[in-house]
Specification:
The complex is a heterodimer of chains A (262) and B (258).
Chain A: E1 3-14, E2 21-32, E3 36-40, H1 47-55, E4 62-67, E5 70-71, E6 79-83, H2 94-99, H3 108-111, H4 116-129, H5 145-157, E7 163-167, H6 175-192, E8 195-200, H7 203-209, E9 212-216, E10 223-228, H8 243-261
Parallel strand pairs in A: 3-8, 3-9, 6-7, 7-8
Antiparallel strand pairs in A: 1-2, 1-4, 4-5, 9-10
Helix pairs in contact in A: 5-6, 7-8
Chain B: H1 6-29, H2 40-49, H3 51-85, H4 87-102, H5 109-116, H6 120-144, H7 148-156, H8 161-199, H9 204-213, H10 217-246, H11 248-251
The chains are: A alpha/beta (262), B mainly alpha (258).
Chain lengths: 262, 258
Amino acid sequence: MDALVALDDVSLTYGGAADGTLALDGTSLRIGGGEFVAVVGPSGCGKSSLMKLVTGLVRPQKGAVTVAGREVTGPVKIAGMAFQNPSLLPWRTTRDNILLPLEIVQPHRSRFRAHRAEYIAKVEALLATVGLAGCGDRFPWQLSGGMQQRASLCRALIHEPELLMLDEPFAALDAFTREDLWCVLRDLWEARRFTVILVTHDLHEAVFLADTIHVMSARPGRIVATRQVDFPRPRDLSICYEPAFVERVQELRQYIAGVRLA
Amino acid sequence: MTRDTLQERLAPWICTIALLLFWEGACRGFAIDPFILPPPSAVAGAFVKYWSPLLKNAWVTLWTTLVGFAIAVGFGLLLGIVIGWSRVIYNGLYPMMVGFNAVPKVAVVPILIIWFGIGEVPAIITAFLIFFFPIVVNVATGIATIEPELEDVLRALGARKMDIMVKVGIPRSLPYFFASLKVAITLAFVGAVVSETVGANVGIGNLMLQAGANFQLPLVFAGLVTLAVMGIVMYALFARLEVRLAGWAFRSGMNASR
């Protein structure tokens, strides 16, 4: 499989090379096109730094980040991002919030005015696939937390990015809503097969959704283990209660307990 | 907003009328000399008798204040955006802005009169100064406190700083902006009146000064009431405009004002 994202021996220090915090140290990682990857690890292990590196928001002091065959030197523009906080703009309707990336990223930016109706239709279609049909006119504060996170996913996907970066997107939701959103993400991925990098603390989430799970060590972060998850797809929520699934989660748990102590 | 009940609508009028009745009653009951405290009826009489000079001078006070306001909005937004633009500029200039804001603008009036002479110019500049700093400080704050995640989302798409300002920063700072306006408008009349009192030959401040010198206390009070009414009207206008332009802030969690 050809790598869409590759990190080669990447080190990243915040706040000056000499006395700053070392966030990542000699991290290497390869992610194939269309792969669903989860990155798990103890808190503060530099998972968010990984996201910033891949999207080109920061550049490493050492090593190289390559996305889609080119070394990352600036914003990559083929990525969509969503975070724990949906961060929708309260003065825009849900629809206009989702249109926001199209007002910014090329080539949509220059054809936005002329093709507005077409883009709105696209938003409506996307809203329907995440179960928010007819909610486009509502403002974010009129949506529940789970609905806001669905809208945030739509905003990350509206420009049809090849790469979806998710930084603990479901961490603030209640357990039932979280499971609903796992399924939403699963179905979106099954339908479109973009590449996903999901940063999470939730091992069930990682095992349920991902093809590959990378375990990171505590700061400075590096990948200490990689596990393939080969449960057949499409996966149903019920597999979360099967012994093989629980075993997988348990194994990862021990790994993380180990790196937290180290 | 929700529809007010009749009682809620009438409440401010009833309170105002009650105050006036109490004032009138106290003046009559204690037989207070109208040269010390004129009763509302005498003030009303002054309004009837001197409506023309009152109107003329109120107009001067109003337009000088509004011109100062307009200039302050223009420059204040501009400087607020510049300051909010980068962390470094924000950290460098913000304390200075707070310092300027803490200076009583009224104390600057004599300096302005030395610089610009007697007339409307010092009044305009006083009003400008009173509006300017709160606008700058609040707009800069609104812009500087954009959620970093949102900035990441947009920057990863290739957004320029200007895009982030236009799409996020400026709309986001509107509630802060209106919060500052509502405070500033009432102070602005103070500034305009002081500068008219010290160094002008027109305006409500000047009218009150002359009326005081002639012991026309009812007319002085009529001037005060005129100022109060102008303040309330301007405040209400800004509040209306705020609901129009930044009404979202009342319902979403980001409630900077009110």
